[in-house]
Amino acid sequence: MKNPQVKKQIKYIGTNIKFYFSLYFAVLGFMGVVITIVGSFLNISELFGDMPVWARILIVLGVFILLAILILPFFFLKKRAIYYKNGEHEVTAEYGDIERISSKKGDKKMVVISVNTGFDMIVENPGENALVSENTNHGRFIKRVCKEENISYEQLNKKVQELLAQKDETSSTIVNKRKGNPIDYKVGTYVIYELGKIYYLLFALSRFDEKNNAHPGKESKDHLPLEELLNAINNSSQNLDVYVPLMGTSNSRYQLSFNESFNEMKHFFLSHRKQVESKIHIVVNSRVRDEVSIFKNN
User: Fold this and answer.
1) Which of 4, 174, 234, 294 could staple 93 via S-S, CB 3.0–4.6 A?
2) Distance, CA of 284 to CA of 258 (rounded, Å)
3) Are the C-beta atoms of residues 117 and 190 closer than 8 Å to each other?
């Protein structure tokens, strides 16, 4: 099988096979109820007449297979899973894309963007030691804001640094980096950048050393700073829908796979669900839906 898209679809089915069969048997159970009700008015055995047993078996198997095929489109269209709901407070996950969610018009929302601890706002072409790659959510945020506000990278960088300067008790140090801002903030530091109806929560996740190599920082102990993130969300979200992309993958140097990142984030938010004061949506990029199942219970 040479078509990579077909391979991804098959892999997605395998990743979510339990959910698919639970959906299948739910529909099958509903059909069973319908048949039972219809059977109370009609003698279904008369519909088969003198048909031999093997033919009846083939018809039943055909119905099962046809039902499985008919459910497939609904299986692929389902993009959201709800784990916890208590009034206006939720923990959910969905397949999507942070950039498209940000671009979608509608009510006010909060979007989390993980950035480096220097809060650098200069996009570079992807490559070795890129300060901020244009392919990351951080880089896409920068390009979108600069385009919509018609400002330069330098102007955006200045605005973000001014927001940081306004925060009380923000821990920072002066570093001698090859490029980027000389002020380095603690992992977990955040600021809110407003763009129309979107409140971007810029959250410091990875530190860059003097050689511009990214690493989590000693205080992280190689675990995502999710407690700091939840506190930032609770302090700033004002009951808005909050969209949080997978963190600690790609260039962050936390060395987490997409699945490991998702499981760590899901487990944390569920184990701290009593502290959740908004609607938190964990966003899994649709491109990796064949690697991450949002429908698994564990």
Assistant:
1) 294
2) 8
3) no
Domain boundaries, position 9: 4-77
| 120 and 238 both lie in a single domain | yes
pLDDT digits 0-9 by tens, 141-165: 999 999 999 999 999 999 999 999 8
Residue pLDDT, tens place only, 165-212: 888 766 777 776 777 788 888 889 999 999 999 999 999 997 765 555
The more confidently predicted of residues 100 and 170 is 100
Average pLDDT over residues 40-55: 69
Answer yes or no: is 296 within a domain: no
Which amino acid, 26?
A
Which helix (H) or strand (E) covers residue 22, if one does?
helix 17-39
Between CA 262 and CA 50 the distance in angstroms is 56
Average pLDDT over residues 107-129: 84
Q: Are residues 115 and 168 in the same domain?
A: yes
Look-up of token digits 């040479």: 2
Q: What's the CATH number where 192 sits?
A: 3.40.220.10
Which residue shows structure tokens 């200069």? 122
Residues in the chain, overall count: 298
In angstroms and rounded to an integer, the radius of gyration of the C-alpha atoms of the chain is: 25
Q: Which residue, among 30, 27, 200, has the nearest Cα to 113 in the 3D structure? A: 200
State the Cα–Cα distance between residues 180 and 118, nearest whole angstrom. 7
Total tally of structural domains belonging to the chain: 2
Domain end marker among 77, 104, 122: 77
Long-range contacts of 257-260 (CB under 8 A, 24+ apart): 257/291, 258/284, 258/285, 258/288, 258/291, 258/292, 259/291, 259/292
Are residues 92 and 163 located together in one domain of the fold? Answer: yes
